Amino acid sequence: PMEAEVEAPRQQYSDSGKVHDLMPLYYQRLFPAQEMYKWLAYGNDQKHAQADGGFFKRREFCFTLEGDIFCRYQSFKDGNELAAGLRARCPAKIDIGPVFNVDPAKRAAYMGLGSDRVFAPTERELVFDIDMTDYDDVRTCCGGGDICRKCWPLMTVALHIIDAGLREDFGFEHLLWVYSGRRGIHCWVCDKRARVMSNEQRSAVAEYFSVYKGNDQLGKRTNITQPLHPALQRAWDDVLLKRWLEHVLPQQGLLETPEKWEGVLAMIPDEGVRATLEQKWSSGRRASSGAAESEGAARWRQLENAVRGAASKRKGLEKLQLEKSVKEIVFAHAYPRLDVEVSKHMNHLLKAPFCVHPKTGRVCVPIDPDPECEFDPLAVPTVASLLNELDALAAEPAKDKEAAALPAYERTSLKRAMDCFRATFLDSLLKESKAELTAKSREQATKPTLAGERETHTEKVGEATLGVGTDRVEGNKEELNELKKGCARHTTVGVWQLGAGGGSKAGRRARERRQYKGGAAAAEEAPFVSVSTRLVQEHVRDPFGNRKSSAALRALESPLLEVHFEQRVVKELHEALVLEIASVTAGGKPLTPRIAAASQKARQSSFE
Questions:
Q1: How far apart are CA 542 and CA 457, in angstroms?
Q2: Minimum mean pLDDT among 8-12, 50-54, 358-362: which range?
Q3: Buried b (16+ CB within 10 A) or exposed e, 136-175
Q4: Checking phi first, is residue 73 left (phi over 0); if not, alpha (psi -120 to 50) or beta?
Q5: Dihedrals φ, ψ of 513, to 5°?
Q6: Span 218-226, mean pLDDT?
Q7: Long-range Cβ pairs for the range 510-514 (8 Å, 24+)
Q8: Is the pLDDT assigned to residue 530 strictly greater than 80?
Q9: Are 175 and 189 in contact (CB under 8 A)?
Q10: Is the peptide bond preceding residue 371 cis, with omega within 30 degrees of 0?
Q11: Which helix (H) or strand (E) holds 349?
Q12: Can you give the pLDDT at residue 515?
């Protein structure tokens, strides 16, 4: 009998291979370009009256191509264009820059005009970068770019302290924490007031968290006081002391050998205390009383008791320095160490979330800042593992149509990272962005309309939009009813739009359909008298009675000029503000009798 045909094994992607070879597949199948667009557009991707359609286009992206080729000032119209650009160029790394005042890809047209403000950043998220290599004098398990589960608690401490400070001390709400893909973490503060901070303000915030000041001949230096600043006391009570005793001390073995404890004892400003402790620890006698307490924690208890006893015998400055030294040791070893230069400048680039680290292949995934959620950097999905998951799914029939229609990343282990991104950050940010746009619409709608101003105001309730001064009304019936009640104070009742175009028969009919609104009776109570007329000098005067020149009217570059006068102002100016409503003609022919009568009545009521 013929042997059964053996199916060829599927290709398996390996983490040991070249990461860049897998990037075309990652950008084509997995990178969440649309989610990134939603974030960085800050609500300006919506069809909202106040949305800035060019906002995302002014954002700088920097692509690092293979061979360390930097392509700065890349820009994209939307998520689709971003995705296409990534697929076309397959960058090894993506960095995100600021939002400029003009499209960065067209910056050459605005440069060299004698002002450094012609092409300049207008906003950028407040960012923080914390790198494990800055703790190389603390950790004994790894060095350089390597990390492990023993030294990662130092990053956990930094995340929880900075997160609490930004939220409680500065009132920021929209914080995105991201694993860098190798040995650090990044924080993006995306509140509006954080994004528009000046460089000086950013520097001040960064310095607020700069407690560790480096090493000198006297040992590690910190910037703490006794008693502690409230923010530092919170960090001590909520994070530092617990993590120090349970993780940093035992896992780094800082008090277990003379080489390690030498730096700790050097920070105690009393030679007698240092000598006593060194003698105890060198004797080989165990300090811990049982398995429940680590040797490092037991020796730390001895250190605290020795310092406390010595401080009780001192006075003044010596007493204060001794009491402070215990906390200084902990702050010097475990308090966050920021790269403050990254935070200080608005135009500094920072690696984008969800890109892939070119050396490790790990995806830069969001981190849940909840203290109950422990993040494991070694369990982060790699680009190879994700592609293997997709291939395995492709070999199996889809369970249902809905599952098959999901984006590829929703069907892999990247889904957990995307859920974290939305739940801890994106959903609340988009809700606030939408509310800001709606509030801006309401603010615009309540602004008084001045002479010569042609701005159209809008109100929005749910998905319903009413353009005040226009005929555009969108939305379902219930929302529109609610909308009309809310903006009754500035509806277009009693507004005239006369003489709106050329002399053709079709043009006159179109004008008559959009002419006088609300009836003559409503005109007497109308808050504004509005006249739209052909750009003819004889029919329009400014609020001070001066006749507008034809040249000035043509400069408006519009076939219409809409002039609004409050009736109160009209009464005060009297004949100095003549609006020749009754004599306005459209296309050389008189207005319809109904419109002419209404106009005459409005004129009489305005000048009584």
A1: 22
A2: 8-12
A3: eebbbebeeeebeebbbbbbbbbbbbbbbbbeeeeebebb
A4: left
A5: -70, -30
A6: 78
A7: 511/586, 512/592, 512/595, 514/471
A8: no
A9: yes
A10: no
A11: none
A12: 37
Strands of the sheet with 366-367, listed across from one edge: 126-131, 184-189, 175-179, 366-367
Between residues 535 and 59, the one the model is more confident about: 59
Distance CA 318, CA 316 (A): 6
Residue type at 507 in one-letter notation: G
Helix segments in 335-426, DSSP class H: 340-344, 383-394, 401-405, 414-421
Neighbours of 497 (CB within 10 A): 20
Question: Buried b vs exposed e over 527-538: b needs ≥16 C-beta within 10 Å?
Answer: bbbbbbbbbeee
CB 149 within 8 A of CB 376: yes
Report residue 297: phi and psi, to 5°: -65, -40
Residue 520: pLDDT above 50? Answer: no
Q: How far apart are CA 45 and CA 39, in angstroms?
A: 10
- How far is residue 473's CA from residue 480's CA, in Å, rounded to a whole number? 8
Q: Are 353 and 176 in contact (CB under 8 A)?
A: yes
Catalytic residues: 60, 129, 131
Task: With residue 29 as reference, give the H or E element that holds it.
Answer: helix 23-29
Cα dihedral 521, 524, 530, 532 in deg (nearest 10): 40
Contact 577, 543 (CB under 8 A): yes
**Residue 267 corresponds to which tokens in the numbers above?**
């920070």
Please give the share of the chain, as a percent, with pLDDT higher than 70. 68
CA atoms of 248 and 470, how far apart (whole Å): 66
DSSP-derived letter for residue 253 is: T
- Provide the CA 281 distance to its chain's centre, in angstroms: 51
Q: What is the spatial distance between Cα 380 and Cα 567, in angstroms, rounded to a whole number? A: 68
Question: In the Cβ-directed half-sphere of 345, how many Cα atoms lie within 13 Å?
Answer: 9
- List CB contacts of 219: < 8 A, sequence separation 6 or more: 263, 266, 267, 332
Q: What share of the chain is helix, strand, coil (3-state, %, to 5)?
A: 45, 15, 40
Contact call for residues 333 and 253 (beta carbons, < 8 A): no
* Nearest residue to 52 (alpha-carbon basis) of 77, 74, 72, 34: 77
Per-residue exposure over 376-386, b if at least 16 CB sit within 10 Å of its own CB, e if not: ebeebbbbbbb
SS3 of residue 404 by DSSP: helix
239-264 burial, b at 16+ Cβ within 10 Å, e below that, comes to bbeebbbebbbbbbbbbbeeeebebb
Q: Which of 530, 474, 392, 284 is nearest to 10 (CA)?
A: 392
- Which pLDDT score, from 0 to 100, does residue 286 have? 77
Q: Report d(CA 129, CA 336) in Å as an integer.
A: 10
